[in-house]
Amino acid sequence: MWDAFDILLQANFWAATIRIATPLIFGVLGALLCERAGVLNLGIEGIFVAGAMSGWLAVYLGLPLWGGVLMAALVGALFGLIHGVLTVPLGLSQHVTGIGVTLLATSVAYFGYRVAFPNVGTPPRIEPFPPLDVPVLGDLPFIGTILSQQSAFTVLAFICVGLVAFVLARTPLGLAIRAVGDNPEAVEAQGLSVVGLRIGAVMAGSALMALGGAFLTLSAFNAFYFGMINGRGWVCIALTVFASWRPGKALIGALLFGALDAYQLRLQTITGGAVPSQIFLMLPYIFSIAALVLVARRADYPRALMKPYFKGQR
Amino acid sequence: MNDTSLPDAAPHDTRPLVLSLSGITKRFGPLTANDHIDLDIRAGEIVALLGENGAGKTTLMSILFGHYVADEGTVHIADADGQLAPLPGGSAEAALKAGIGMVHQHFALAENLTGFENILLGTLPLWSLAPRRGAARSKIERLMAESGLAADLDVPVAQLSVGEQQRIEILKALYRDVRVLILDEPTAVLTPQEADGLAATVRALAGKGLAVIFISHKLHEVLALCERVVVLRGGAKVADRPTAGSNRASLAELMVGRAIPPRERPPSTPGAPILSLRAVDVGAPTQRDRLEGASLEVRMGEIVGIAGVSGNGQGALAALVAGLAGAHAGEVTINGAPVTRADPAARIAARVGRIPEDRHRDGTIGALSVAENYVLETIAAPENQGAGILKRAAIRVRAAQAIAAYDVRCPGPDAAIRALSGGNMQKVVLARVLEREPLLVLAHQPTRGLDIGATTDVHRRLLAARARGAGVLLISEDLDELFALSDRIAVVHAGHLSPAMESEGLDVRTVGLMMAGHAADEAA
After folding, report:
1. Same domain, B233 and B172
2. What is the DSSP letter of A131?
3. Of A171, A188, A303, the CB nearest to B92
4. Are residues B128 and B95 in the same domain?
5. Is B358 domain-assigned?
6. What does pLDDT average to over chain A?
7. Which of B62, B112, B182 has the most A C-beta neighbours within 10 Å, making it the best mutation to test the interface with A?
8. Which residues of chain A make contact with B131, given a CB cutoff of 8 A?
């Protein structure tokens, strides 16, 4: 029993929490940006894969690490553009289109990988982001250990939280994005472009999602594997509801999920196989579902979410 | 082009022209929605735009506001120097820039934003960093002081009352320095007192030189507020005259194209109670649309009207009577038999007829045919099915009879009901409800969105049901309708239902104050 509690006092546990949470932070931010504009983006799972693959491939082909990050964002924005054009001006079902984008992006990423490395058994490795070297703070006992296991990519995730929060709350652009997800007529009547705002938000959101994927290949691991995204995108969709579409709460939700995942990994080792490991693997998801049951019933969905808007129709 | 070259409707009027429409024509397929409409509007003028549904008002305003592009004709609007310049079509942004503001009947507000943010929306460059909130704030506060439009700017719009939301809408337009303000059915959702406040504001704004286009079907408001009235019928302008010298009957005749017989409500002798509520609670206390301790009696052969601003408990009352919601406290009896739980089928069996508030959402199923919708509530009855198989031929015959009896304009009983106009759809609903000779008729906003012709028809049918001996519960936001039809009127506000008062001799002001939450003795 004491061992189960002791996990919480280990710096390693907290370092793992942040590491596991980082891709989710990007993903939830991206999903909430799309949904704040009124577009559900179920392409997220595939965009994670495409971001992971393209960022890693770019670095493998010689780009600097930050070049890989940029490449992933561009690829994400491109898939966002596809999703946006299909769902906003054409008004197709956002569910169906999103699943389609996920299948397309995943397949394109796998196909690209196979074309680039036709006869390779184990994927080639790259040199990932190095651990942070923070002066003063890095020398502290507990915090220093945590920081030394993070990379600059994680710092970018935290910066993005502040950036998205600032844009949404404080700028005219954010005002327009929040308005277009609630009542596109209001935006149209004030002379702004509903289509432009929504596609723009979906592209920006998809770029963030792709960064979540790129974090896995450029920082957490050093190569691209099939199946490495493993449902992280779907978790972000649920966390977006949990976060009530707020960047600050998105950060908390991602960290909470990261903590649960890190905790169950360590719990597995102390029980020493007495309980099947699958039970532990389920824990974060069971907690997510329980949290959603509590939160989602009162969730204040953006009013125009998933409602296509056509100019001139009321 | 300058204003001397344009037709001048009133040569003695020296106020400068701000808006001039000439030869506006818009066709949708075979339908001509606007047929060569000319309209001049001067600074400081309040012009009423009247017309039945489908007369072309909305199309004309949509062209003005850039939602549609006119097939023919031009729109000229005065620029800052008072010179008329052509307005490019099809762009809301251009219309806004040129100084045209529109307050839609359904507000164009983002409810998750505050009033302040809604006003600011679209007025700042998207990519600027921090909005200049201070300057904007002081401008809005100056406008509020000048116009008398008061509203809380700092809470999400969803938390504001309908009246406040409308004031935010008007402030939105004023903030952009509009010279022409279009108000589309602005009083439809207001209490009489709020409507008076709005009228005062509109007069004050016009006094400062704002041109106002006032769209309404409440003719007494038009007569009281507007100096000129423009009437559209069938897409064409049929009248453009000063309000002075017009009256309600003459305006209604211009709109419809024929004389409207005045409604008559012959005296009736109410019989036994058909619906009785005693201290009834419906809905959770957290809901806005709920009832708390409501008592009411509707007798056979009388119409009891429920007045109130939508969402104050009317939905809960209608749901209770229709069997969609149960009462969790108090006693409800229908035709002497106590009812407790929600059971729509039992209500239908007890001969309660339901005319729902939203005929598209709750009254009909769009994909089904007129005939299928007609028998929807009695689909299990032996005349409609045998051994679980629909008697299609018999249903079609009876539907065809109802179509003839209720003058439903449609291709036939097999036409999908969603293709019908609102008035004709409502006639199908009426036929379904009234052909069963219900003992109790629940009429929830039965004429919402209908034009004068269709409204007259609904009123005639409800009075006929009353004459036949049915009790009618009429829930409406239209006080004219309530006073014309009801024998007694109760007012609902924030879940509290007032005792029903004899409508004879009842003051409409009293009802208005009660709708705003004042008690009956306080209001009287």
Report:
1. no
2. B
3. A188
4. no
5. no
6. 92
7. B112
8. 170-172, 175
Q: Are A257 and A21 within 8 A, CB to CB?
A: yes
- Note the pLDDT of residue A234: 95
Cα separation, B497 vs B502, in Å, equals 15
Predicted confidence band at A180 (pLDDT cuts at 50, 70, 90)? Answer: very high
Chain B partners of A312 at a C-beta cutoff of 8 Å?
Answer: 62, 67-68
Q: Which residue has better confidence, A162 or A9? A: A162
A220-242 per-position pLDDT tens digit: 999 999 999 999 999 999 999 99
Using CB atoms, pick whichever of B93, B97, B125 lies closest to residue A172. B125
**pTM of the predicted protein model:** 0.82
Residue B423 lies in a domain: no
Q: How far is A178 from chain B (nearest CA, A)?
A: 8
Q: Are residues B7 and B93 in the same domain?
A: yes
Same domain, B85 and B187: yes
Contact A186 B121 (CB under 8 A): yes
Identify the closest residue of chain B to A304 by CA–CA distance: B110
What gap in Å lies between CA A290 and CA A297, rounded to an integer? 11
Does residue B401 belong to any structural domain of this protein? no
Contact indicator for B38, B75 with CB cutoff of 8 Å: no
Asked if residue A234 lies in contact with residue A70, where contact means CB atoms within 8 angstroms, the answer is no
- Comparing B45-49, B54-58, B74-78, B146-150, the range with the smallest average pLDDT is B54-58
Q: CATH number for the domain including B462?
A: 3.40.50.300
By residue count, chain A amounts to: 314
Which residues of chain A make contact with B106, given a CB cutoff of 8 A? 185, 314
pLDDT at B107 over 50: yes
**CA distance linking residue B328 with residue B316, whole number of Å:** 12
Pair B93, B185 in one domain: yes
Domain boundaries, chain A: 2-119+148-296
What is the extent of the structural domain holding B329?
A: 273-351+437-523
Closest CA to B492 of B302, B291, B298, B327: B291
B183 and B90 co-located in one domain: yes
CATH class label, A2-119+148-296: mainly alpha
Burial of B354 (0-12, 13-18, 19+ CB in 10 A): buried
Higher per-residue confidence, B338 vs B4 = B338
Q: Are residues B466 and B483 in the same domain?
A: yes
Question: What domain count does chain B have?
Answer: 3
Tell me the HSE value of B471 on the side-chain side, using a 13 A CA sphere: 22
Assess whether B190 and B161 both reside in one domain. no
The per-residue pLDDT for range B334-351, each reduced to its tens digit, is 999 998 788 998 999 999
Both structure tokens of B382: 């032996």
Query: In this structure, what DSSP letter does residue B235 have?
Result: T
For residue A314, pLDDT over 70 is answered with no
Region A11-34: what's the mean pLDDT?
96
- Residue-wise pLDDT tens digits, B207-256: 999 999 999 878 888 999 999 999 999 899 999 999 998 888 888 889 88
* Cα(B94)–Cα(B26) distance, integer angstroms: 19
Q: Which of B177, B195, B220 is the last residue of a domain?
A: B177
Evaluate whether residue B472 is within a structural domain: yes
Among the candidates B256, B291, B316, a domain finishes at B256
Yes or no, beta carbons of A191 and B97 under 8 Å apart: yes
Q: What is the mean pLDDT of residues A21-41?
A: 97
Q: Which of A182, A193, A246, A297 to mutate to test the interface with B (most CBs of B within 10 A)?
A: A182
